[in-house]
Predict the 3D structure of the following.
Amino acid sequence: MPRLLVTGGAGFIGSNFVRYWLEQHAGDRLVVLDALTYAGNLASLEAVKERSEFRFVHGNVCDTPLVEGLLREEAIDTIVHFAAESHVDRSIHGPDAFIETNVFGTHSMLKAARKIWLEERALAQHRFHHVSTDEVYGSLGPADPPFHEQTPYAPNSPYSASKAASDHLVRAYHHTYGLKVTISNCSNNYGPFHFPEKLIPLTIVNILQGRPLPIYGDGRNVRDWLHVRDHCRGIDLILAKGRAGEMYNIGGGSECENLSLVQRLCVAADEAFRGDPSLAIRYPDCPAARGEPASASIKFVPDRPGHDRRYAIDCAKIAREIGYRAHVSLDAGLLDTFGWYTEHSQWWRGVMDGSYRRWIETHYRDESLLRTGDRARS
Ligand code: NAD
Ligand code: DAU
């Protein structure tokens, strides 16, 4: 049975992966290593914290001796490396943490794996899976073919540049030392436990609180959306069937312009409030509680510097080699996600603490976006 070390397991995708794994592979040892930055929340692991297979370790991936100790003590044979600074806007305001965690942190993990798996133990069966992003490929024009695994790297933000650097290090540890690695380059995830600084959860919690819905630039930038559970399944398949030294793109086949995506969420809100009168009582500041369309709160704001125009993913390799395809349609996934946020306000109110609020204040510098009509909270 595999024994997993999951870094960043208290974050959005990591915590979904931990729940997914313990559901699908009950009995496997699973250790989470997470520094609990603003993006990491133990509340996201509440459902698994009592499981005997599960252990949480509060620590930093840059702490190589700590990682080496865990690999030894827990006889880990599989690392799934999610831990990262993940928000493009934050990387524009302050790139240092991105270089530290995404580049040095990944290198620290690789060094520890090499030392314990290749030098100390000669562990023939091992896997270092690195979770990366489609942003390493840069930006597409409207008629360009989707990113495939041979698309040259052309990262445009400090975030994507740091992820590209980490991908190169992972590849080099395979080529030079023979570490058995795989890399997945995935498109935009969404789903439960997503920190409300990213477009989908931010839009949902702002709709519910009657706040403006910020759209950068002209709102015509395109992302390919993938439900987080499909991403977790993709990683599971790569661990089971992926070839060492290979990278695999994972996408949702659901390209959508930002404005259209936000409008879809607004329609979902309007319909949900019409169908369930209790929502108006729980979220009295939502426009839909007064019968007004949520889309009236859409507000165009200045563009993100260097904003990538379009991402799209060619999933042919992972489909052909491993049999992967996304299961959750964007319509079903958005409805499900909207419903999850209406039922888990304690979670999202809990993670939107003082440090998050300070970030929003510095980031937007636009008072109207900070208007709090949130009577439910006070
Ligand atoms: P997230 O920001 O929600 O979570 C990151 C987690 O890493 C948090 O729990 C945080 O506490 C932890 N962490 C940060 N620095 C750490 C450190 N130095 N040591 C230990 N733990 C640390 O991120 P996410 O959206 O869940 O993304 C997870 C991974 O997936 C990242 O590597 C990201 O680049 C990649 N990815 C994300 C998406 C997406 O749409 N969110 C898409 C493709 C790839
Ligand atoms: O493509 C994968 C990447 O997707 C991951 O590697 C990143 O970790 C993840 O954060 C995500 O990056 P994006 O920058 O695409 O996600 P974000 O949710 O921040 O923005 C999605 C789009 O919406 C993007 O075009 C910017 C736009 N946007 C975002 C916010 C937060 C807005 O228009 N308004 C907003 O308030």
